[in-house]
Amino acid sequence: MDIDSETKVYRFVNFFDLYKLVTNKKLRMSKLSIMEDKNEGLGRILESQESDLFLRVHCIESEEIKKYHNGIIHNTYVSCWTKEADMVAMWSLYSVDKTGIRIRTSAKKLLSALERFFTAHHWSEYDELSNKNQFLADRYDVCQVKYVDFYGLRDEIRRKYQNFDKLAREKSSLNSFYFEDENGYKQDYEKLQRHKIIQIEGWALKDRAYQHEQEIRGLLFCGIRSNRTIEEYSEDPLKSLVHWADAEVLPNFIYLDIEDDFIEEICFDPRCPNYKIEVYMDILKNYLKNYSISIVKSRAFGYALEESFASDIDGYPRE
Predict the structure, then answer these.
(1) Residue 16: left (phi > 0), alpha (psi -120 to 50), or beta?
(2) Residue 35, pLDDT above cutoff 80
């Protein structure tokens, strides 16, 4: 996790999602393949293109890139949150009918929910893995999204390797042992790999067109049982027992169990009529009475002068 565990994170939901959260205590995560942004997961492709030769060979040709991307989006689940509590853009996007609800938790609690799901679905929890489509969790994380220009990153990576290729050709023309020399190609290639254009994991990269979201995302990487045996895994743990599933094998949604104190705060759309809020609260009151959840009011769309802005000449507020 690359953010402070105590960071407060917010999610905009509809009433039905909130009702399911408080009654079933289940947090829904969505597969990348059903997200509106078709470039989800592209950061991982670019990260691989900049990586070592083993990964680069899978991300050079267009068809291989599409195949790799398809594997990413059909095996990765996300739960999207934000650091920004009162951005008008977020209320406008996720509360079109003015009845949306903002909930708050912490990055630590989101990570804990992911950890519990991961532990319960890790391959080591299953005695028999005869089902080739056995759903397995492979990795989890909570990260802060960085917004980038994917085309610009692509071009930087291309220039990086074009320049390296040019350098290697020039040096090899002057030294016939350049590729065999320990201080030749190998040293230059290691230097190349130390200089990273992408400084964070590709999972955290998103198109800058979405930067208004200031997203914090929970990530869960899943798959199915590979054909490898436990003995083979013991000999080479770097080769995982979890294998990417083909499209449509894994469900579009998964649900994480959350603790009673997961939701810390509820905020209704400030434009929502009071009579609707009263109905919502009436439906929820029996479920909320045992929880310590704050009900707050947002200042988004508000009129600042409804609060006291008047002051005396010496700066002290006036009634």
Answers:
(1) alpha
(2) yes
